[in-house]
dolichol kinase
Amino acid sequence: VLVESLLVFTIVLSVHAAVWDRFSWCAVALAVQAFYVQFKWDRLLQLGGAVFQFRGAANSGLLPASMVIPLLGVVLKERCRAAGIVYFERFGVVVASTGMLLALFLSILAVGITKPVPTNTCILTGIAGSIIIYTMKHSLTVSEVIEVLEVLLIFVYLSMILLYLLPRCFTPGEALLVLGGISFVLNQLIKRSLNVIEGRGDPIDFFLLVAVVGVVLLGLFFTVFFIFLDSGTWISSMFFHMMTAVLGLGVIMPWLYRLIQRNPLFWLLQFLFQTQTRLYLLVYWTFLAASACGVVFYQNAKRSSESKKHQASTITRKYFHFIVVATYVPGLIYDRQLLYVAAVLCLAVFIFLEYIRYFRIKPFGQTLRRLLSLFLDERDSGPLILTHIYLLLGMSLPVWLFPRSCAPKGTLPGAGALVPYSGVLAVGVGDTIASGFGSTMGEIKWPGTKKTFEGTMTAIFAQIIAVALILIFDSSVNLNSSYAWILASVSLVSLLEAYTTQIDNLLLPLYLQIMLMA
């Protein structure tokens, strides 16, 4: 935990040195207080004193999770300020302020339920909170303050509902990241729905907002409904499919129509088949999806013939990382907008299939339970299987969060040109190579972990080679001699992979994106 905290502090100070404004100072203050409060959360988890049931076999992860959203906002603000895009500069300020307030709320919650009350931690939290609130008071307009408070309110209610319904699925840090992100997306969707201006806004951004909020609301609806009814019967399954169609066609589609001012289905079909390149990419991705399904069926057939207790090895699970890299790299090179939309569709399908598995919806619910149980690891300790969804999110978030409006030529200068590749580098290449090489040939272990020195060094080397290949094949990438910063970023994130107990598929790409954008 101490080494993980040291690495996060190094990243925070690196961003602070690159940006050096009042919000980066606030980020430093937030990191100091989160470091102290993290130990209070860890103690609460060990003693069973936390309000909800969190994922075991991991620390609270409060410090690394607390810094992600504020740092994303800080670097987004700085990039858009340099590009002269005032609207998105202010958006970055709102993102940073929202992330800091959510992290402070989680810290105050931990301090409040710790007995006896930790005096020193309370003083630190009070000082950090005062600095942040004072900065927000002199930086935000009234409408921006209201927006930040709206996200906080949504986060509080969403946390109470989902953490109660889904015990042992998240650590406190993962809950902050996932539920904070969903709360922000929901607030953005409500805000944009109330202020629709024809012709303003990119349809693919609206598509992402509606898809995320739609699948979350669908899950909440069926969770409440199946409290009163057995979900494994044919009647319940028919109702599930019927209500999915009703909510999709009666709520989600009209909502998207209001935002993009055209028929969503016609827009989507026109978008997917607009060029011949997109057609080739869709055929190629269909082949890769079939290959992934083939791996699942083959491993389950192998389990049936060998032993019922057979579990997929780490190397086998990394097959999917290779398939995802093969999926994303051509999309990033040839058509990023298509990759953006395809990733949104894939996320919606993954979550919908998880609903079918979780609720045992006929005719595929039990089959999905049997097929996916082979690939479970210690992080899937709750009722949901989330690791494959986290892998998709880790690869997609750098694409979704890339500030297109602040990149006049479609790419950022210097190391920022690699931002969309953050997921490919951190998870697809780094994590895969570290895990595969470390588990088979690694001998020297990092102190206090199961990860090996050889795995980490090989991961860094592999990511440098991947950057060189990106330079060769993607003509839009121009690093402008920022190689030392890229090497430092890749090294810090690879070391964080060795020491963190959080979901690395989600955390590592975001930290690499922050470093590259800074």
In short: Residues 276-306 form the longest helix (31 residues). The CA atoms of residues 62 and 173 lie 5 Å apart. DSSP finds 19 helices and no strands in the chain.
